[in-house]
Amino acid sequence: YEAKREGVRCRFFSPELTERAREQVVLAGELRHALAEGQLAVHYQPQVELRGGAGVGVEALARWPHPERGWISPASFIPAAEQAGLVDWLGAWVLEQACAQGRAWLDAGRPLGRVAVNVAAPQLHNPELGEQVAAALARTGLPPAYLELEITESLMVSPHAAVVERLEALRRRGVRIAVDDFGTGYSALSYLKDLPIDRLKIDRSFVGGLAEQERMRAITRAIIALGRSLGYEVLAEGIETEREHQILLAEGCRYGQGFRFARPMPPQALSPGP
Ligand code: C2E
Ligand code: MG
Ligand code: MG
Ligand code: MG
């Protein structure tokens, strides 16, 4: 009986969960330190026109070269940052870096097109987002039309009126709005009629199944048709193979991003040579 009760208790206080929570706290502390010390980096992944391959922009992706653990993926440190209330700081830092880099490319006479920056939930719900963006643009001198904000679809599904107003204000300034990870947000789709949107980014979980699964292709075809008929640009994420590229072209998708074209890389790797 004793053993059984212990077993039950173990499940309640799930040591695994506690361990993970503890790790998040440690990670958050190290992240705060890394941010303060300027140890984070931003890499950039090209976005291209699927026909012809011309670059149309880059997505800024945060990178954390941890001194002991190597490169930690944003998929794990962004949630840690959110929990620790660090994401506004991190987001503002990435935004500033990306705008400065976009401006530097313009100045070098090699504009790489728009710079897309991911926006996390706490940033979207921060009334100061508009000022934050305006300040970054003003400080760096990047024209607003060169900035795109990527917002994950799940955040768009039932937006507060204040969020809609915030996005509309940004768009009136000339900043573009993209819906990231489209198709994964349990979408009610009705939000599409109310929100100011310029681009849909088809989630890479669909693209990855394109070549093998007719159903993925059917869903992707429907997303492309939906986006196009609403007047949005449609970009497919996570294109890895020639075959996926060809299918997307055949289905009328105009833009893409993925390892097939280029991996995310440090800005020097994308800059013009002498
Ligand atoms: P995301 O915004 O959907 O970014 C695209 C992710 O797909 C990136 O992962 C990119 O490296 C990866 N990717 C691009 N092409 C391919 C491909 O062909 N195959 C595969 N397998 N993956 C590909 P990454 O950099 O690890 O970022 C993961 C997520 O973390 C991002 O997903 C985004 O939601 C979040 N994130 C990254 N940087 C930031 C940031 O500065 N702020 C916020 N709020 N979130 C960020
Ligand atoms: Mg993104
Ligand atoms: Mg995202
Ligand atoms: Mg995405």
From TrEMBL:
Transmembrane segments: none annotated. Residues 24-274 form the EAL domain. This is Diguanylate cyclase/phosphodiesterase with PAS/PAC and GAF sensor(S). The chain holds residues 445 to 718 of 718 of the full protein.
